[in-house]
Amino acid sequence: MSGTTPVEALTEIEAAEELARLAAEIAHHDEAYHRLDAPEISDAEYDALRRRNAAIEARFPALIRPDSPSQRVGAAPESGFAKLRHRVPMLSLDNVFDAADFQEFCDRARRFLGLTGTLALVAEPKIDGLSINLTYEDGRFVRGATRGDGQEGEDVTANLRTLRSLPLRLKGKAPALIEVRGEVFMTKADFLALNATQAAAGAKVFANPRNAAAGSLRQLDAKITASRPLSLFAYAQGESSEPVATTHWDYLGRLRDWGFTVNDRSRRLDSETEAAAFQAEMATDRASLPYDIDGVVYKVDDLGLQRRLGFVGRAPRWATAWKFPAEQATTVLQAIRIQVGRTGALTPVAELAPVNVGGVLVTRATLHNEDEIARKDVRVGDTVILQRAGDVIPQIVAVVPERRPADAQPFVFPDTCPVCHSHAVRPPGEVVRRCTGGLICEAQLVERLIHFVSRNAFDIEGLGEKTIQEFHAAGWIGSPADIFRLPAREAEIAAREGWGKQSAANLSRAIETRRTISLERFIYALGIRRIGEANARLLARHYGSYAQWREQMIRATTVGSEERSELGSILGIGPAIAEELADFFGERRNRDLLDDLVGVLREIQDAARAETADSPVAGKTVVFTGTLETMTRPEAKARAEALGAKVTDSVSKKTDLVVIGADAGSKAKRAAELGVRTVTETEWRALAGLDD
Ligand code: IVH
């Protein structure tokens, strides 16, 4: 499903979703190509995926994912590094977010151990880099691996050797075999400088220090890694041929003695009650630290207790990460731009004066929808508080009212689509305003065409998503009718890369066979909002023929018209859906599009009228008169018609049945004169089976 909307038209949310999809898709093809030697797509198609990924990332640098294919450019295809199995699995940490959660972590550990009294802990700033496992044999660095899936990582030994802070030989006495674990990271200053150099050289710019560190370490060419400013803090142990300490604090001391860098902000806490103060201290100092941290790791100091506590799932019972709240920054909102998604949703996007939030340059933020703008009273010119948590899209938390310019105006959400200028409507009870342009809106066109040819719609074999995109890009299909003009281009199609005579001829044949279509498929294919298969069938059965449907829908565009009430009273349709249809037909370009389409079809087959066969009123001519109590007149008419009756306005000899409501006048009299059968509303309901 990638790649249908022009990159400029993507909302931030859609962009994030698509990047996730592309990452998975490209990873899949990488694996097929490199590991299985069995590519599933052409090189050109593969390149197109990567280009689209790059284009989206260029527009939304804050959305670059750690697993993005771009973060592997020039570096490791999956098979580039050998796999290394860790002797002791590398686990992750559970998170806590406040003092109560932290207390619960300590209580759990105490209960598990059957201890009373408080726990001595070691607190270490939690750096967001990438963890690595370093193996030393007889004091010499022999192997280093990334964490990978925790069991098995990538052998990045050659690259790690280039790190200045990694001791190649341990100083002093060391066990015959020891694994040391730590974090490879980039300082904020190094990250900004690297990005500046990269940008000047026209090379890739990294989204954050973590990605820069990961990208730099995972270079196939160790010379490149050597040129990148990577740092290392050591903080944990894996396998060891002999015990090296009895407390974690002492172990950190040994690491220092061997020549490792241990974070100098690490601290031993005599009691867990000191944690909150340490947490607050680090939160205050965070901004002035030379590296990014996202919390503090607390570890039970006593290694004997650590061993007893062990692990649960993938995390130790003896350590936890107390995370900071999301990072915030303030900046000025310069404009609110409305993006149109491929389903027609209008999404407001805040254009911001560029600001650094936690090492990431943010220039845009999502505003979600119009209610959100109104609720926060966000105005262009406002100073806003921005928040970014982890890899998620930046959010505007609030405005700073004291800094509002005197002339700032409340934002008025547009009621027309910025792309195609159709009405943008917001049904009652919904938060999203949508463009009603559908097939006439360039932002939605490709998506709508894909629906148009899909299996339950026109079902054109050989015309899938990719082909629609290809032909749209070639400028050949700008509307549904254009699909039926493709056979005229058969020679041109045959000449395209990846086509040829046979497949072009097959496509033409598939299109030709679909010039005849049932009314319900036709209606469904238009992709009018809320007209799925079931409603398309209801409409087809109710109106019977295309001509009848079209005429009635155009009349139904008038609010309060009989046709509008009738449409809204079709069982299963209702007033809200009637409004969607009225909106569609109210737009001249939609009517033109229909006429154009009908012009290239052979036949739209009439629908069988609904449930007519076994009803006692099927085929009867019925007149309603007077005021009905249980339903409106249009509904009564619609119901009768649905049962196969013909409803007329005046009583004649041809009338089979007159339904008499309250205060009936001349029609009741005339029925009596002509000897036409009359029934009350209650009798009618029974006859029509409406109370069953
Ligand atoms: S100890 C079994 N200590 O956080 C516990 N991890 O969320 C192993 N991290 O994968 C981790 N600073 O990449 C530990 N001082 C520190 C850390 C730290 C950062 C990272 C590490 C780990 C992740 C777990």
Explain what the structure shows.
By secondary structure, this protein is an alpha+beta fold. It contains 25 helices and 26 strands. A 5-stranded mixed sheet has the order 2-13-10-3-9. The protein has a 5-stranded antiparallel sheet with strand order 16-15-14-17-18, with no helix packed on it. A hairpin with a 6-residue loop joins strand 17 (383-388) and strand 18 (395-399). The longest helix has 24 residues, at 12-35. The chain is elongated, with a radius of gyration of 35 Å. The model is unreliable at 73-78 (pLDDT under 50). The structure holds 2-(butylsulfanyl)adenosine. The site of 2-(butylsulfanyl)adenosine has 15 residues, from strand 3, strand 8 and strand 13.
In brief:
By secondary structure, the chain is an alpha+beta fold.
What are the bound molecules? Answer: 2-(butylsulfanyl)adenosine
Indicate the CATH architecture of the domain at 83-323: 2-Layer Sandwich
The percent of residues in helical segments reads 25-40%
Biggest beta-sheet profile: 5 strands, mixed
The CATH fourth-level homologous superfamily of the domain at 83-323: DNA ligase/mRNA capping enzyme
Under CATH, the topology of the domain at 83-323 can be stated as D-amino Acid Aminotransferase, Chain A, domain 1
Strand fraction equals: 15-25%
First-residue to last-residue Cα separation: 46 Å
Q: Give the mean pLDDT.
A: 88
The count of helical stretches stands at 25
Secondary structure: number of strands? 26
Gross morphology: elongated
Strand arrangement, major sheet? 2-13-10-3-9
Q: What is the CATH C-level name of the domain at 83-323?
A: Alpha Beta
Unreliable stretches: 73-78
Q: Output the radius of gyration.
A: 35 Å
Class from secondary-structure proportions: alpha+beta
